[in-house]
Fold this sequence. Notes:
Elements: H1 2-37, E1 40-45, H2 51-66, E2 70-75, H3 80-92, E3 97-100, H4 105-114, E4 119-123, E5 131-133, H5 137-155, E6 162-167, H6 173-187, E7 198-202, H7 210-224, E8 231-235, H8 238-251, E9 257-263, H9 266-276, E10 280-285, H10 291-303, E11 311-312, E12 318-319, H11 324-327
Parallel strand pairs: 1-2, 1-3, 3-4, 4-5, 5-11, 6-7, 6-8, 8-9, 9-10
Antiparallel strand pairs: 10-12
Helix pairs in contact: 2-10, 5-6, 7-8
Amino acid sequence: MKKHLMKIFLIVFCAAFVLSATVVVFAKEKPGEDEEDMYILGINNFNDSMEFTAKVHADIVEWAEKYGFKTIYAEASMEPEKVKANLDTFALQGVDAIFEFNWLTDVTAKFVRENPDIVVVTGDYIVDGAYYFGANNYIAALVLGRYLAEVVKERWDGRVDAMVFAACYQCGELLIDRMDGIIAGFKETYPDFPEDMVFRFENNNPTGQQTPTTKQIVTDFYTAHPDMTHIVVGTNNDEGGLGALSAVETMGKEDNFFIVSHGGDTPFQEKARAGKGDVWIGSVSYMPERYGEFMIPWLKDILDGKDVPRELSPEHFVLTAENLDQHYPEN
């Protein structure tokens, strides 16, 4: 009887061991199966040393994880060879999609043509064959130009001696729109403002040095035009705005300048809270901290084969010292 019970016990024990092993094997295989079903997104960022692009990167990663994406990250700092190398590496790694954020149209366009099976989303610049996510540059600039006209009318009685635009004009058509739209918005109120009083300067040489370059541009311009007392400086991002403000403060000419910029990011917010909003009067908001929130659900629909628009932009508004706490509470 004891031998019979021992035989039954051994059979049950062996069966239990086999079943438990089977469960362990399946549990180990499951993550692998999930990974095969995940979309892989390559993020080719400018770099994380710029506040705006760092926020974009962080939010895309956060929302990609929420939607079950795997992400691969690289930086190129707007260097053509690095952009090309990173994109080619992503392709070799089998990515399903790429978010490209270096604004080099020709390099990206070549990659898009050669890799039609990869969904490429360009951030804040247009490339044929790619999807577009980011600012509606011209609309953002119009909004900013209309606001500028209001402030000029109220505080300067409509007088502007010159507009000095410092921007990354080499970045292409969209960055040109980002600046020219300011004039268009301003001219809705002041249609006779002369074109020859708009001065345009490239501020992205060397690459990534927009703050000191813009400071030098503004300093040199005022040095060459000391009789001007009502000067507007427009920049394509808040880093440029920082440079313009530094120039104005160094020269002690706060009463003679208005600064407007694009981005509505931390540099502007910090200066507005520090009482600099009388000079740096506004920055049109792009909400970099929400890029992933807006983009990732749309990108997933694209990869799932749904019929969606090829372009997506957030809504723009001008951030000022007066409305800052409404949109970005200090705490």
